[in-house]
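Annotators were shown the component list below and the corresponding predicted structure, then asked to write short factual statements about the assembly.
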Amino acid sequence: MARALVLFAHPCPESFSAALHTATVEALTKGGWEVDDCDLNAEGFSPVLTMEERRAYHDELGNVAPVAGYVDRLRAAQALVMVFPVWNFGYPAILKGFLDRVFLPGVSFKLVDGKVEPNLTHIRKLVAVTTYGGTRMRAFMAGDPPRKSVRRAVWHVCRPDTMKYLALYDMNRATDAQRGDFLARVTREMEAL
Amino acid sequence: MKALVVYCHPRPDSYTAAVRDTVMDRLTDHGAEVRLIDLYGAGFNPVMSAQEHAAYEDESANTRGLEPHVADLQWCDTLVFVYPTWWYGMPAVLKGWLDRALVPGVAFHLPNEAHKNIQPGLPNITRLGVFTTCGASRWLTFMIGSPGRRTLLRGFRLICAGSCKTTFAAHYSIDSSTPASRAAHLAKVAAKMDRFIGPKPTRQEARA
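Structure shown to annotators:
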């Protein structure tokens, strides 16, 4: 059975992000995926790349030791699904730290003659499920950094067949109906993944 | 001038520390009052907790534990970020500083009946600078769209003064840098800082 790693980054179980997370996991399971559900806050993931890790960063034999469990989970996945709220035009720090600490040289990319070569090509499907407090225009005016990070930076090291960026903007003013529609859309898309 | 420098690197002997020193030196030389936040040095916790998130919109409680950071943000007229770019963005520790310190009522005001959009909360900030290093080349960073730079110079700038002046410099391809390229970049940082903190013309002066 194909395996999907779900990276979830919101501290509150009563949040709308948590509802999206639950819907995502259930829909993927229903769609036949074996889901590795990684709730970064609940697992107490530390996003802080330490001085020792920085010193060993380019040592492809030694750099995975502090995060070996997470590296194994990433390597076992055929789909990567990131569920997070956009905070201040970026990922929550706990998810940014997952990229900093786990997406290491030799894991997510290889440096060949100083150039980045993709190394997560076993991930065939890449999905982000996210919400923005502000409007889409506001995000567009700022260049929508999280969209670029997923669709370009993470995409670049996976080169997936399928890429989906599912976003609900203007959460500060969203109605129950808009949230319900988005939840239904996420459920539909994840069941069909 | 009241300048706040937010610095983020885990290694005290890093090149980023040399960039920070150059920035601090230029500010001091121009007679600015300077405050430094060293996020790694202070052991700053970047993870917003469930309790903090629950109190996020409660303006009487959402700065609890972050008072000095909030005071610095409200005190400064010039804000400079110095950090290494990791994964095309700022390190998680710096991102977490934004997540936790930029709360409603301080950094911005949530939409209400009078304003349907988010209103800026830090109009005291009239200068915003970013100095960074990138493992990726200039070309690859451009292709990815420089999300880290945009998060700060466009996203963060939205909550500063409307006329906020910005500056930016990056040493790209830092892993293949040479002593000469690093020294040249420090000189560039110093020159950019001098232009950045030079007297800013008023609208009338600019027209004249």
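Statements collected:
1. Chain B has a mean pLDDT of 93.
2. The beta strands of chain B are 2-7, 33-38, 78-85, 108-109, 119-120, 127-134, 165-171.
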